[in-house]
Amino acid sequence: MGSSRAKEQRAARRAKLEQIRHAEAARERRNRIITWTCSAAIVVGIAGAGWYFVDRAEQQNKAEEAAAAKPVAGEESFKDLGRNHVTTPVNYEMSPAVGGDHNQAWMNCNGDVYDKEIGETNAVHSLEHGAVWITYNDKATDEDVTTLKDRVTKTPYTLMSPYADQSSPIVLSAWGKQLSVDSADDPRVGTFLDKYVQGAQTPEPGAACTGGISA
Fold first, then answer.
1. Sign of the CA dihedral 119, 121, 123, 126?
2. Residue ranges of the domains in the chain?
3. 210: how many CB neighbours lie within 10 A of its CB?
4. Is pLDDT above 50 for 46?
């Protein structure tokens, strides 16, 4: 009788232990499934976020490229401009010149303002280095000239000088690009500077705007 009861107790313990082992195994399986699911969700999330930011960056680059390719309203463009160094005057097809053969010495263009006319072949060399040259004639008001001078002195890779032989009061010139305006308040002045100071049109980007000549 006692022996039979002991056997039943042992059998019950074994059954209980087996039940515990099955429960533990089931719990471990659930934990593994949860871990795999969370890991997969994280990977998918990271991949999705990565693709989102890559796609967003590509869209932004395309937008910037489109903006860079779009000309400033009213600007003129010139192509096939020579780049030889010369020591003689050059008969440029536009006034002021926006490119072509030029003097070996460039005008300093680190926000330099000149109160007298400067050598055109020297200024063209500055344009080759990515500068924007702002010129004005006697039709420009004193207020406009002052406004432009203040802007130039604060903008590296620019220079400014009077230029009598131009049809508009104010002209902005970059290599191969030119814009004529009547007033310094014209919003295209800022647009032109933003676009063409060391812009994509520059034949020698990063070349010096100091160490040239200043008169």
1. negative
2. 1-70, 76-196
3. 11
4. yes
